[in-house]
């Protein structure tokens, strides 16, 4: 029996999500200053096909058309991020033209009965702050607080749902340890410091939010993978617990319990790493929800030859174009785990897949994405029926867009973008969603 929208709570938010650098383009327009992703994407060899976000989906100019597409599909929520270097100059003066873009976007969403959910930071750190140390400089929390306060003051009268950071694990591990993301460092000690300053910035923003937007809610979005032992053994179970603490617990526990998870902390200390723990009181200020970005599981095995005592193992399930196993069961498991451990309301702030989408005679037959969404919707509904306080689900993503180090090679959109013409085409999955959201 196909799942129906009417099986979800009446006030459940079904939305879609994007981020500024991945869709806006107009990187040199109206005074926008460079971010670390502008510099990183223009560094030869960093991005597949040496692509960048200079034009992307040209959303800066086409936002009205894109909102109309959301309206046509029937979404009642839209999660997007603010481009920090578009709204604040390096001299700390506000960029009114940049702010006006977001004012117009918010007003257009509200006119179309679409609730805006704003992410303050989705990785595009102003480059001048990187030159001051970026996420390695403790002062970054104060810069972030000033930026957050500006956005709360400008948009807080109309926007009541806020997310401080998107996926601090990615900002720290992909940006400072694996070198795959901006700023492209490869230092585990820096990674730990950056993670701590990201959490501090989160806390400083929450603190000022309570003073400015008294009738709004604020949370943080983490990417969560279901960590499982590749083969059942005591050692592999222990490895899974450790990895779950490193990738998931490290960015949830401090916010709720005011401390880092013990096993992971013990491992890092054994490796001689400094674990900064200042401002845990600010980091652990109460928040209103966790955003959960879910894509797949991560299979691990104990590996005594690794300094981190584990290795990743390739799974056997069908995979998306990103090489990620399709594993909807993991969504249910992680919603239940996070809800039970931390007791907060949850939003699925991202879920979706990159597919081998081909435009043929103006049609994109992405049946695989329809099936993917249906299976994950079913798990979300199962979680709600089991008493988990899940309040919304945002499809990643509205449009095909700049998939970071993969450039434009991976299409996550339910709407196909022909980057040569910037024409938008509803994929079969968007048509399916349109019908689903009406039942
Ligand atoms: O990889 C797909 C998505 N994952 N979460 C963060 C987004 O910016 C990515 O495009």
Automatic annotation (TrEMBL):
Pathway this chain belongs to: Glycan metabolism; cellulose degradation
Annotated family: Belongs to the glycosyl hydrolase 1 family.
Record NCBIfam families: BGL
GO biological process: cellulose catabolic process
PANTHER family, per the entry: GLYCOSYL HYDROLASE, LP05116P
Designated name of the protein: Beta-glucosidase
One Pfam family matching this protein: Glyco_hydro_1
Gene Ontology CC: cytosol
MF (Gene Ontology): beta-glucosidase activity
Chemical reaction(s) catalysed: Hydrolysis of terminal, non-reducing beta-D-glucosyl residues with release of beta-D-glucose
Native organism: Thermosipho atlanticus DSM 15807
Annotated substrate binding sites: 22, 122, 166, 295, 396, 403-404
Coiled-coil boundaries: none
């Amino acid at each position: 029996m196909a799942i129906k929208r009417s099986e979800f709570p009446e006030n459940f938010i079904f939305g879609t999500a994007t981020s500024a650098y991945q869709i806006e383009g107009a990187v040199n327009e109206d005074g926008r200053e460079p971010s670390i992703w502008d510099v990183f994407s223009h560094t030869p060899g960093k991005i597949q096909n040496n692509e960048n976000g200079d034009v992307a989906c040209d959303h800066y100019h086409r936002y009205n058309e894109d909102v109309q597409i959301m309206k046509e599909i029937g979404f009642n929520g839209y999660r997007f991020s603010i481009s920090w270097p578009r709204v604040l100059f390096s001299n700390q003066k506000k960029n009114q033209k940049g702010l006006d873009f977001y004012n117009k976007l918010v007003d257009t969403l509200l006119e179309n009965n679409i609730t805006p959910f704003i992410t303050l930071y989705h990785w595009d750190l102003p480059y001048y702050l990187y030159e001051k140390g970026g996420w390695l400089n403790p002062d970054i929390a104060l810069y972030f607080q000033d930026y957050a306060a500006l956005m709360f003051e400008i948009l807080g009268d109309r926007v009541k749902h806020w997310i401080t950071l998107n996926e601090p694990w990615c900002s720290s591990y992909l940006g400072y340890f694996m070198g795959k993301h901006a700023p492209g460092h490869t230092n585990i000690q820096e990674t730990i410091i950056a993670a701590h300053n990201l959490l501090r910035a989160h806390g400083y923003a929450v603190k000022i939010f309570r003073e400015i937007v008294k009738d709004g809610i604020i949370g943080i979005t983490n990417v969560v993978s279901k960590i499982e032992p590749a083969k059942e053994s005591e050692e592999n179970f222990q490895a899974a617990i450790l990895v779950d603490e490193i990738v998931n617990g490290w960015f949830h526990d401090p916010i709720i319990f005011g401390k880092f998870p013990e096993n992971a902390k013990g491992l890092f200390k054994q490796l001689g790493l400094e674990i900064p723990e200042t401002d845990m009181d600010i980091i652990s200020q109460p928040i209103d929800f966790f955003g959960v970005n879910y894509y797949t599981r991560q299979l691990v095995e104990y590996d005594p030859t690794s300094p981190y005592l584990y290795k990743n193992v390739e799974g056997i399930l069908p995979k998306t174009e990103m090489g990620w196993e399709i594993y909807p069961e993991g969504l249910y498991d992680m919603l239940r785990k996070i809800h039970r451990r931390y007791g907060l309301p949850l939003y699925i702030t991202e879920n979706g897949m990159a597919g081998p989408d081909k435009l043929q005679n103006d049609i994109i037959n992405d049946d695989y994405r329809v099936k993917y969404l249906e299976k994950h919707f079913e798990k979300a509904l199962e979680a709600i029926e089991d008493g988990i306080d899940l309040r919304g689900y945002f499809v990643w993503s509205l449009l095909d867009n700049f998939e970071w180090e993969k450039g434009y090679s991976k299409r996550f959109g339910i709407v196909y973008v022909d980057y040569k013409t910037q024409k938008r085409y509803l994929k079969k999955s968007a048509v399916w969603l349109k019908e689903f959201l009406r039942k």
